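Lecture notes, unit on protein representations.

Consider one protein chain, 151 amino acids long.
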Amino acid sequence: MDAFFVLSIMRDISNGLSYIHSQSFLGFHGRLTSRNCVVDDRWVVKLSDFGCNRFYATEKKRKTDYLWIAPELMRANFSLGTKAGDVYSFAIISSEVLTRRSPFDYENRQSGLDELIYMIKKGGTIPVRPSLSDVEILDLNPAVLHLIRDC
């Protein structure tokens, strides 16, 4: 993928979040994952599955769903989400777009999924984040990588 296409995907997602955060009565998405980002016939990314948090609050999450949940929300067992949690999820999705791999490349990790989720939830002085070191998009502004890391 070229930088324009990557940035277009990221822009569409951030525009959707901006609408939900500032103009919607919902206030936040709360369940944002790459599965909730659908592409229409004009290659515009649309966000889906928002506004249903109360319906899903008691539903058991799949283990992989925790890869998009902010560590502070996991620690607080806060199932509805927050705006800050959406920003974290946006960064995880952006890392997926850039690396073309699953979040944290969990399928290729030596440690299991349970251990990865535990390390993310636990946090620490150096938080666990997806690796962006092998991103190979030639004309991508390095500031984009810094933006993702800061989310």
